[in-house]
Amino acid sequence: MLHLLEDCPSVAEAANKLTASPQCPFPDHWLNGLLSTGLFDHVWIQFYMRVYSSNPDNFKKSWNLWTPSITAGKFFVGLPASHAAAGSVYVPTNPLISQVLPFAKAASKYGCHALRQVQ
C-alpha cells in the first residue's frame, strides 16, 4: 500500500488519467513499449526493491534517464518507507530529505512522491 506524504493537486485536476508504475531500471523490461507510446499522463516509478533507491546519486541517474526519455505529464516517485519495506535499499531520512526529494521536486515533470510501507 502506498501512503502519500503530501497532497498531490496535479493528480486531482482531471477525473481520468492513464498511469503506469514501472520498476526503476530504465528502460522497464515489461512496460517500455507501452510507455514509449506517449499516451500516459502519469508515470509512478518504483524506486524500491532496487539499488537505485538506496544511493542518492543512483537515484538521480535513474531519474535523469526516465524524465527526458518518456513522454508523460508528470512523474511520481515511489520509495520505501522503512527498512522493513525494502531492507538494504531503504533511503535513510537525511539523504531522502536533503538530496533525493529536493532533486526530484526541482524537475518540471515532478508530480509527487509516495512511500511504500509493508503492512
From TrEMBL:
Gene3D superfamilies: Glycosidases. Its EC number is 3.2.1.14. It catalyses: Random endo-hydrolysis of N-acetyl-beta-D-glucosaminide (1->4)-beta-linkages in chitin and chitodextrins. GO terms for biological process: chitin catabolic process; polysaccharide catabolic process. One of its GO terms (molecular function) is endochitinase activity. InterPro entries: GH (IPR017853), Glycosyl_Hydrlase18_Chitinase (IPR050542). Keywords: Carbohydrate metabolism, Chitin degradation, Glycosidase, Hydrolase, Polysaccharide degradation. Transmembrane segments: none annotated. This is chitinase.
